[in-house]
């Protein structure tokens, strides 16, 4: 890839996975709000552990695998539909389903600013990692870099949610983000070479927190 193309790819990743991209990710905590309510996450160290667990062993790892699969299948409508169906089926709670589907829908709507035929073969409602992976693959963005940017964005949103929930300050948040860089790089490399057989999560407390959030009466977030 030429230097100009590499720079263009970087700019697109920065745009698509920026907090300013209109997907509404700030509205979701992925169950973190319930974990804070239940005393599972009480400080910056707990917030980092929560994010690292989701990255390496939870729903975010599965999202990385699904993103890689969609990246490879971006030109095959049948394979892409199968990945999209699997991603939707893997949503472990009503709110998790709502989160990934609405984020994906919003991502695809905004991505029409970069027209490409892939947008016509994807379902209008597509899980977020599948939408990102398919669009990144269609635009010939490097898979590992796309996954790294996606994981960084998800981790950043988790940290932002933790700050708003009062378990960490902004300086703590920056420290956490710096601290998970190496983990994100390792996971991006691993996920880029993964297959559907590598799907699997073991973050049970996070899954329970996501389910329990559905009945929480006073809350800041939609998940």
3D architecture notes:
Helix content is 66%, strand content 0%. The protein has 223 residues and is an all-alpha fold. The protein has one domain: Orthogonal Bundle (Urease accessory protein UreF), CATH 1.10.4190.10.
Lay out the secondary structure.
Elements: H1 3-16, H2 32-37, H3 44-57, H4 59-72, H5 77-89, H6 94-111, H7 118-121, H8 128-138, H9 143-164, H10 170-179, H11 181-192, H12 204-213
Helix pairs in contact: 3-4, 3-9, 3-10, 4-5, 4-8, 4-9, 4-11, 5-8, 6-8, 8-9, 9-10, 9-11
Which keywords apply here?
223 residues, globular, mainly alpha, Urease accessory protein UreF
- Total strands: the figure is 0
Overall structural class, as computed from helix and strand content, comes to: mainly alpha
Distance between the termini: 40 Å
CATH class: Mainly Alpha
| Helical content (DSSP H or I, runs of 4+) | 55-70%
Q: Mean of the pLDDT scores? A: 95
Report the CATH superfamily: Urease accessory protein UreF
* Name of the CATH architecture: Orthogonal Bundle
């Amino acid at each position: 890839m030429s230097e100009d193309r590499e720079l263009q790819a970087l700019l697109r990743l920065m745009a698509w996975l920026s907090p300013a991209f209109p997907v509404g990710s700030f509205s979701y905590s992925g169950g973190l709000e319930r974990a804070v309510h239940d005393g599972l996450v009480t400080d910056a160290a707990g917030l980092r552990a929560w994010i690292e667990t989701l990255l390496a062993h939870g729903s975010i790892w599965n999202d990385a695998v699904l993103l890689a699969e969609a990246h490879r299948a971006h030109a095959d409508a049948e394979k892409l539909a199968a990945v999209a169906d699997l991603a939707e089926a893997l949503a472990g709670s009503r709110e998790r389903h709502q989160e990934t589907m609405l984020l994906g829908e919003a991502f695809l709507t905004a991505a029409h600013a970069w027209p490409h035929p892939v947008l016509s073969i994807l379902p209008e409602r597509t899980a977020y990692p599948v939408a990102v992976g398919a669009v990144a693959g269609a635009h010939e963005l490097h898979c590992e870099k796309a996954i790294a940017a996606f994981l960084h964005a998800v981790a950043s949103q988790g940290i932002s949610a933790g700050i708003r929930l009062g378990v960490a300050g902004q300086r703590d948040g920056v420290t956490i983000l710096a601290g998970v860089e190496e983990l994100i790089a390792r996971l991006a490399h691993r996920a880029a070479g993964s297959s559907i057989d590598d799907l699997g999560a073991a973050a049970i407390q996070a899954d329970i927190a996501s389910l329990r959030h559905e009945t929480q009466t006073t809350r800041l977030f939609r998940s």
